[in-house]
Amino acid sequence: MPDTPEEKPARHILSLSGGKDSAALAIYLRDRVENMEYMFSDTQKELPETYEYLDRIEAYLGKPIVRLNALVGFDHWYEMYGGMIPSNHRRWCTRALKLKPFEDYVGEDQVFNYVGLRADEDRQGYISHKPNITPVYPFREHGLKLKDIEGILRDSGIGMPPYTKWGRTRSGCYFCFYQQKIEWVRLKETHPGLYEQAKAYERPYEKTGNFFTWSNGESLAELEQPIRMEQIKREHAIRIERNLQRRENATLLEVFGEHESVDQPDDDEDQGCLVCQL
Ligand code: SF4
What we know:
Bound molecules: iron/sulfur cluster
Strand content: 5-15%
Oligomer: single chain
Structural class: alpha/beta
CATH topology of the domain at 11-168: Rossmann fold
CATH class of the domain at 11-168: Alpha Beta
Helix content: 40-55%
CATH architecture of the domain at 11-168: 3-Layer(aba) Sandwich
Number of helices: 11
């Protein structure tokens, strides 16, 4: 009888996004999961701070983070889609630049894919649904919440992602359409060159005349007007104040036994996708 080939052991893969949750998960699992592979799907449109953060994490892990590049990048697909800027409803970018390179890297191997979704989040994952890829959610399984993640990052010395210093809340492409208006303002102030590059994608597509914008309801040329930027800052400050009030009220409710989540995002627009922004 011919020998049956030995079954290949399942692989353990943790996909880093450049965000705090996947970074904390890598730290948390470093000494818990043997043979972990680390990878990062690089759209080549990331913030410089993200690359710096990944280097820091890599040094801590003592293992390489494999950088995956799509065979063809964002600009190719942008032209293919007729100048269509991706959006929540036209999210071709995540599929082409994040999921596909990951699935190609995995092939048909059996894989446990570790995802940094927290126990205090109520989000659906936009992740690979290939049958050979099994998602694992250690933070959820172990009940780890935001304050635990912050503790892991602090204790390891890795800290929060550097872009949080200038008020950006998410990893992913510098032009990500999930950005809140205030994050566009901060991008303009911190990385004016990247803002200009994002603006350059907002142009009528020569073949169809279609014109798409990154941010809902206005172009980046409109958003960067000083009066508009001031208005966005004012509205953001009001929203922060309102949320602080809500938190105070929630604490009072908790005192009286009526629990209410206080870990909601501070903005309705804050609905990023898992693969890019955990
Ligand atoms: S970060 Fe945003 S723009 Fe970039 S691939 Fe993800 S969803 Fe698309």
